[in-house]
Amino acid sequence: MADYIEGKRPIIEALRTGVPVKSILMADNVKRDGLIEDILRKAKRAGATVEMVPRKILDDKSDRGSHQGVMAKTKPFPYVGIGDIVGAAEASAANNDGRALVVILDHITDAGNLGAISRSAEAVGACGLVIPNKRSAHVEASTYKSSAGAIAHVPVAQVSNLVQAINRLKEEGFWVAAATEHAQDLIWDTNLKGKIALVMGNEHEGVSRLVLENCDLFAKLPLEGEVASLNVAQAATACMYEWLRQNRA
């Protein structure tokens, strides 16, 4: 997650949506207007400390020069290991007639899309998300906002190699299904019952060749309008709910 959030309204929104704020840095000469008072109230409820500092400290820490006399320092997001995702999946399968869903994001670059996908993943009962630790979106303030706070309830594993993570899931009995427009079969005609790892690709290039080569199943969504594609978060939601439909009790 980004270390600092700048500005009055962004900080209020962050506190409202559950971004884990560690502390508030406030310029010692800031004007105590209504927004500042709102920040102080929300910070107290969130258990975040407030530190009065010289404005120059904020100027030095600011990336955009838009801090308005106040910045919020966030706590690091608690990523988990792939083993934790596997453990959650085993528990899910044991309690839900063998079904479990893990969502793998192949270098999704927009943190808002990551949040929207995590919101849907939490809604369908997915066991977690797997993302690369490089050249990929990570959990930041905008992720909390677009997930409506759901990201705090979905385990997220950062891995150095997606193919290795895929192979680990295969060893644990998962079928790996790639959502790709190049597939022959529609998602409706693809068997998604049981333990499924759903792979969603980059916003511009889709699932990479190397990852595709390690997938077991390939499926696409039907598109009958004039627009040739869906946003990756919308597509992921549709695919996850098809998994849920096929695995309903």
UniProtKB/TrEMBL annotation:
UniProt keyword Methyltransferase, yes or no: yes
Designated name of the protein: 23S rRNA (Guanosine(2251)-2'-O)-methyltransferase RlmB
Alphabetized SUPFAM superfamilies for the sequence: alpha/beta knot, L30e-like
One GO cellular component, as annotated: cytosol
InterPro entries from the UniProt entry: Alpha/beta_knot_MTases, Ribosomal_eL30-like_sf, rRNA_MeTrfase_TrmH, SpoU_MeTrfase, SpoU_subst-bd, tRNA_m1G_MTases_N
Residue span(s) of domain RNA 2-O ribose methyltransferase substrate binding: 4-80
Pfam families reported in the protein's UniProt record: SpoU_methylase (PF00588), SpoU_sub_bind (PF08032)
CDD domains, per database record: SpoU-like_RlmB (cd18103)
Family recorded in the similarity comment: Belongs to the class IV-like SAM-binding methyltransferase superfamily. RNA methyltransferase TrmH family.
